[in-house]
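Milestone 3.1: sequence recovery, worked example.
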């Protein structure tokens, strides 16, 4: 998944304006929350879809 995000970081939907995106995993109820940087991308959290889904908001 990291390779896909690195190749096209704007392919996934914006989860929180202006620049935090969410890339859902296929086999698990998880999403990678990240933002694009000049060097590539920065992973902010690995968020479960049902357990405390917005715990990562304090990490912005």
């Amino acid at each position: 998944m990291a390779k896909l995000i690195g190749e096209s970081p704007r392919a996934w939907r914006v989860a929180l304006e202006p620049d935090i995106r969410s890339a859902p995993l296929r086999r698990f109820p998880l999403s990678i929350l990240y933002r694009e940087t000049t060097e590539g991308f920065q992973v902010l959290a690995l968020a479960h879809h049902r357990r405390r889904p917005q715990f990562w908001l304090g990490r912005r």
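The two ends are 21 Å apart (CA to CA). The chain is about 10% helix and 40% strand.
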